[in-house]
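Q: Structure for this?
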Amino acid sequence: MKEKPGFNFEKAISHLLRFGVMASFALLLTGMVLILFHGSHGRALVNAGLLLLIFTPIARVAVSVFVFTREGDRIFSLITAFVLCVLLASFLFGAMA
Amino acid sequence: MTSLEFTILTFAISILAGLLGSLLGLGGGIIVIPALTLIFKIDIRYAIGASIVSVIATSSGAAVTYVRERLANLRVAMLLELATTTGALSGAFLAGRINTRWLYVIFGSVMGYSALMMLSRRSQVKAGASQPSPWADYLRLHGSYHDKLLGREVFYRVAGARVGLALMYVAGIVSGLLGIGSGALKVPAMDLAMRLPIKVSTATSNFMIGVTAAASAGVYFMRGDIDPVVTAPVAAGALIGATLGARLMGRLQNRTLRVFFVIVLLWISLQMFFKGAFG
């Protein structure tokens, strides 16, 4: 794909995912330990880790929309924007149901 | 069973689920849900909630490696996600309005048939389309990856973009309706209709399932169907397993992966068929 010199789309997505994965793992592990040993805020930490994990793929789609738009890839910016909309619609649909 | 025992056991089983799922492009739900409901007697709603989160964990955990190594074809994935996400939404609308027993029988049979078709491809040396693929050309879907075992860059052309989209829409509906992970339908579609190399099919499927699961997970979370005590070890274990699995992928022969996938797919198809036929 057309790229600015030095920008690697695959690497950027991989880094984004790695951040989400490692941060949520840290929250999950800490929260689990707290829950097991009756510390406070264990459940809150776990929930934060789970939300971060759930949000990571969505962030990936959002970043893709941004990158494709910036690169002038009209078709794929539309495709990914549409996917993002469907994802958001699913959340709304689920919230109402 | 104490909380500690439950946590450690669940964590271990989830590592296995993440390992398997990441290699095969599946979500790992086929291990997690039975383990939680049958062994630990967890309520099915919480089991499904945990399973959906484990799919996201498996997907994201492995994708870190698959995306960087270009095993997952991002353009193909994002194109197909158009179809899987709208399919999943359609499936959610249809839930409760369709008699699902026939669907279990039909898709169990389709999966079984696909498994056999995939097996017959194992002797093909070269993946990739030889026929012209206008959509794939226009959308620049073709790609390559470095196969560590073969020690060279594998170039492949993508075929059947339109058929792939149609199949992905169906896979999305099926997963929305029947609650199964759609990886079991995605991989055969990419392998047979789009002619991708097997490692690209499983890695791309793995990349895609996270997005589909994220939509459901949001709903489950807001409904309170995701229990932190149950889900935390499942998610954490799946993350570890998927990270390991993605690293292991480089050592697997294509043929081994294909046969392994076919066996698991046959197992899933039998389960579905019997579930539909005999309840």
